[in-house]
Amino acid sequence: MIGRSPWSLLLFVIQQPNSAALTYSRATPKLSGSSTSVAVPAATRVEGGATRLQQLRPGVTPWVNDYIYQEKLQSQTRKAEASEEDNYAAITALSLAMECVGPLAVAVAFAVVGTFTLAGEPSLASFLASPTISQLVGGAWVASEATFYLCCIATATFYTASAGHAPGSRGDVTEWDAEGRAEVWRRIVKDPSIDVKELLEGWMYRTDVKQASSLDLLTEWAAARLGLPAAGADARPSREAVAAAGVAYSELSVGDVCAWLAGCMFASSREALSPEQDAELQRMVRELEVAAGSPLAGSSLLEGAPSASFATTPGIDSMCAQTGAVQWRARPLAYYAVSHGIGEKVYTQHTMAGFGFERQREGELNYWYRPAKAGAAASDALVFVHGIGLGPAPYASFLDQCADDSTPLIALDIDAFSQRIFAAAPPTPDRFAALLDAALARHGVQRAVMAGHSLGSTYVAQFARRDRARGDARRVVGVVLLDPVACLLHQAKTTAEFVFNSLYNLEDATMDYIFKKELWSAIMVSRHLAWHEGEWWLDDCTKQVPTLVTVGAKDMIVAPERVRAAFGSWQARLRGVRLQYLPCGHGSWLADPELNAELVGSVRALRRDVATRRR
Fold first, then answer.
1. Phi then psi for 106, rounded to 5 degrees?
2. Can you tell me the distance from the alpha carbon of 406 to that of 381, in angstroms, rounded to the nearest whole number?
3. Hey, is 604 helix, strand or coil?
4. CA torsion angle for 172, 482, 195, 18 (degrees, to 10)?
5. Which of 224, 285, 390, 445 is 20 to 30 A from 372, comparing alpha carbons?
């Protein structure tokens, strides 16, 4: 797929948030000064600027005793890293320029209006009487960019003033009853993949930690290139230092925990809770203390006063995407002309049509459908939900490889996280399940393997859980979760890395702008994602409907080690879970033919297995 178009290649380059410098050599050189011919490793990676080489493939080992070879290889790697950093610097500079377009357009518009206002009516009349082409074009461009920027601010402000979904949000379409909320909370505090104290600590952060901006990082890069001292770089802590200096359980008060739980469980402030909600909240805090084996500061206040009266700890705050401000960064109309205009209208349509898909619609649900080939007896369908990016097109080749001539394919196309301008809100979980079920029925699909990548895995969880309630009439016979945000969503990792993320290098700055802070994607994550509906628990897995969970060891969006601990255990295997642990980052397998082939093999193996089963 990479070789199909320059656009595809660019897409793969920017969709690798955890990629590092790779150095390839296809020959077996005899280096100057060395009497030994050495086998050059297929790929080596250097992390954090260190000189230690990390093996990426089993059985591939550098010739560690050939020091001349090692020195030259490390020199090549450093050059590759420097080149990669230069690329990220260029993208970061471009992103900062794009971020300035809207504010500048507003400033110019106000300046022009102010000038004509001060000059009086004759000046305006003479301008309107004989404007030049360049003045008309420039004026239209400034006006459109200024208007669009103000619309984006209004949209972000509107959603910031509202709250997202939570299991205890009264009147919300995703509200659960008290029994359902109690059950999900018990699952959280008894999660065997993480200590409950560590889980709570992950959601807290210190407010006095100095954060770098994209401009700070770009300035430091430029200073380093010019050999100048980088002011302020030493004052900011590293990623490792921030993690080591995290908030400890012993520092937290009941006020801190109540404030966090009010947002996450009720999408509300403590002050806005009803007496019944407040009592439920305080019972949850008490259960957390029991699970942790030690009380929080101020524990004696519980169940004796409203939680709104509990003091919080100065300098400590908690993350809550549902109630926090929408985190976004401005983009000009030209950006969406590419991501929406070219991305959807040209790239997506051309790519999907090239693989035999036709665009279909069921209510407000858009999708691409490819039937089994004529003459082939239709087998179990493969239904796929994409992640944040440019919709389903980047996955078309992967889906084609996972299928065969008898496989009907359905690839959903959800505008809300496909970088499309003024994207409509996605369907609610119940509505999504009804629409997808109707689409499957329309195409005569009785059995299907559901697959989802990253954020798309939460939609797989929503549908598969509702489908299971259909009993013998269920359609889902297998589940595939790739880089699964849905797994362990109650833990802080995904929220910390995607919504409340800090920037430590230019790669972080690049991915922050391209994926994490696009306005409509940010609204999707913080306001439209119902975490309690989208989480996939080990209890959801059954031997009758096997689950494939694939995660990269270098994934920075999900917690790979914890996912492996939870879904790679013997208890998980008894529930029909297959864990695939890849040596890559989030989504990097898309651009790696070898890893892509491994994943395709695993998906096809699961499909073959479920094809032989009977309900």
1. -65, -45
2. 9
3. helix
4. -110
5. 390
